[in-house]
Amino acid sequence: MALSGKIAVVTGAAMGIGKAITEILLQNGAKVALLDVNETAAGSLMEALNKQHGQDRALFLNCNVESEEQMKAAFQKTAETFGGIDILCNNAGIMNENMWEKTVSINLMGVIRGTYLALEYMSKMTGGQGGVIVNTASVAGVSFLLTCPVYTATKNGVVGFTRAMAAASAASGYGIRINALCPGFVQTDLLSDATSKLGRFSHLADVSQQLVDKMGILNVSEVAESFLELVTDETKNGDALLITPKGKKYVTCPSFK
Q1: 230 vs 77, 225, 239, 250, CA distance in Å?
Q2: 169 in Cβ contact with 124 (< 8 Å)
Q3: Which of 10, 117, 144, 161 is most buried by its number of CB atoms within 10 A?
Q4: Catalytic residue IDs
Q5: Is 154 within 8 Å of 108 (Cβ atoms)?
Q6: Which residues of 212-225 are buried (b: 16+ CB within 10 A; e: fewer)?
Q7: Are 141 and 93 in contact (CB under 8 A)?
Q8: How far is Cα 164 from Cα 90, in angstroms, rounded to an integer?
Q9: Maximum separation of any 2 CA atoms in the chain, in Å
Q10: Cβ proximity of 179 and 242 under 8 Å
Q11: CA 168/CA 164 separation, integer angstroms
């Protein structure tokens, strides 16, 4: 898929990985709706993006992925403003073992909610043009982090949901490819604040740090480049791309065919 003229929605777009994904989409000619709850960060980013790419390429919408009403309104506003939706990146996420229900709500339910809404605009079964959905998972989605069992569960859920939805899309003729982005540790606020969010597993903080030291830390631009690969390579559907400082690889799962 060539990105020039395509219309993308990115959740959690104001900072970190979401910001880098937004920037790489714009650099490659797409128009982007930035969904986030952080108005301050989004305002600063929008100012920079408008200067660099013009006033009509990016749109900020204050939106909480936990709210069906806000998500519906954001998707509708995006379609009305830009003329449709071709790409969705379900990127919004948190890591907070103290707030496990909210972690499930944002990390997993938010991804499901965004995907189902995107189908209404993108599916060829309902008059759409098809497209691509990329869900931000984690290395924890194809393995586990012992300090973050709930975060691990949500990201495993994202990968499983992605694979099942991709197969369902292919079988149903939706015309939508769906992939999962699985980065290792990334230099973001989520990583910086991680040790204070371990809850009942805070006594394992040293173990967590040892794993970070062993694996190394990615920068957000490396993750955005891998996102671009999942969007543009039309052979990728139901794929989980693991990215670490040592390289990247596609992680397969057992097939029952």
Answers
A1: 26, 9, 8, 11
A2: no
A3: 10
A4: 151
A5: yes
A6: eeeeeebebebbbe
A7: no
A8: 16
A9: 53
A10: no
A11: 6
Amino acid, res. 131? G
Other residues' Cβ atoms within 10 Å of the Cβ of residue 94: 17
- The rounded mean pLDDT for the chain is 95
Residue type, 92: A
Task: Evaluate if pTM is beyond 0.85.
Answer: yes
pLDDT at 257 over 90: no
pLDDT digits (tens, 9 = 90+) for 5-14: 999 999 999 9
CA angle 116, 118, 123 (to 5 degrees): 95
Q: Predicted confidence band at 191 (pLDDT cuts at 50, 70, 90)?
A: low
Is residue 90 within 8 Å of 157, Cβ to Cβ?
A: no
Burial class (CB in 10 A: 0-12, 13-18, 19+), 83: exposed
Query: What's at 184, amino acid-wise?
Result: G
User: What percent of the chain is modeled with pLDDT above 70?
Assistant: 99
In the structure encoding, which two tokens stand for residue 92, read together?
């919004």
64-112 per-position pLDDT tens digit: 999 999 999 999 999 999 999 999 999 999 999 999 999 999 999 999 9
